[in-house]
């Protein structure tokens, strides 16, 4: 703890003065983050560090297992964060970010491991889709690969949950929002992105187009809307 306190003093003496103009602008004009990232609470995954963000660049929501519960009427921290980010901050890009060696995903492979933690067990049930997909579609995957498969499929599952949130569904329907699925490989120091066209995770590369899970594209189910617009 003393080490952390020392860094607070360093922030006050060095970091803040060196970025005083930026902090002054943010304090005066408010925040206009470029994206919302929903990531795991794991201490090894720091969203701002991954994207080399400056203060004000990224709106962040962290929790065990980078989970987005399906929309429901009861209040919740993730639901409220998503709603505020979209409807107040006007965010048009949301990233769900998983990672390798995830303790939450490991727990899902060990029945009974969360019996003494009822709240954790209830929370991780939001990842049950990923477990079922891997159980049925990856029958021969074991060990570390089993955990990795669940972690990747969990990103897909949480993106699907995200689309049940009214603010997100509305923005997607209007073609005003893109959804991204990322996976940080801690061991390789690499970030993978979900390509919605192929359904696969591919490395993010500087010389390649950014893989997008759900690109901004208007989707209106009622034909008469289009006809009326014409």
From TrEMBL:
A Gene Ontology biological process in which this protein takes part is: carbon utilization
* CDD domains, per the entry: beta_CA_cladeB
Q: Which GO terms describe its molecular function?
A: carbonate dehydratase activity; zinc ion binding
Q: Which PROSITE patterns does this UniProt record tie to the protein?
A: PROK_CO2_ANHYDRASE_1 (PS00704), PROK_CO2_ANHYDRASE_2 (PS00705)
Q: Which Gene3D superfamilies match?
A: Carbonic anhydrase
E.C. number: 4.2.1.1
**Domain of life of the source:** Bacteria
Pfam families for this protein: Pro_CA
Entry note: cofactor: Binds 1 zinc ion per subunit.
Query: What keywords is this UniProt entry annotated with?
Result: Lyase, Metal-binding, Zinc
**Residues where Zn(2+) binds:** 40, 42, 99, 102
Task: Report the InterPro entries cross-referenced here.
Answer: Beta_CA_cladeB, Carbonic_anhydrase, Carbonic_anhydrase_CS, Carbonic_anhydrase_sf
Its function? Answer: Reversible hydration of carbon dioxide.
Q: What is this protein called?
A: Carbonic anhydrase
């Amino acid at each position: 703890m003393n080490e952390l306190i020392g860094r607070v003093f360093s922030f006050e003496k060095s970091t803040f003065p060196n970025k005083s103009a930026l902090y002054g602008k943010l304090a005066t004009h408010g925040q206009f983050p470029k994206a919302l990232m929903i990531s795991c609470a794991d201490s090894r995954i720091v969203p701002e560090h991954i994207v080399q963000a400056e203060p004000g660049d990224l709106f962040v929501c962290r929790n065990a297992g980078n989970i987005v519960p399906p929309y429901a009427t009861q209040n919740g921290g993730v639901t409220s964060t998503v709603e505020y980010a979209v409807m107040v901050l006007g965010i048009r890009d949301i990233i769900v970010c998983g990672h390798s060696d995830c303790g939450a995903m490991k727990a899902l492979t060990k029945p009974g491991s969360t019996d003494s933690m009822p709240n954790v067990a209830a929370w991780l049930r939001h990842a049950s889709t990923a477990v079922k997909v891997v159980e049925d579609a990856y029958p021969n995957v074991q060990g570390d690969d089993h955990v990795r498969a669940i972690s990747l499929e969990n990103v897909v599952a949480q993106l699907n949950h995200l689309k049940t949130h009214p603010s997100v569904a509305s923005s997607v329907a209007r073609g005003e929002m893109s959804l991204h699925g990322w996976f940080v490989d801690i061991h390789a120091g690499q970030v993978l992105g979900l390509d919605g066209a192929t359904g696969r995770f591919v490395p993010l590369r500087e010389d390649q187009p950014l893989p997008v899970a759900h690109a901004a594209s208007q989707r209106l189910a009622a034909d008469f809307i289009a006809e009326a617009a014409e």
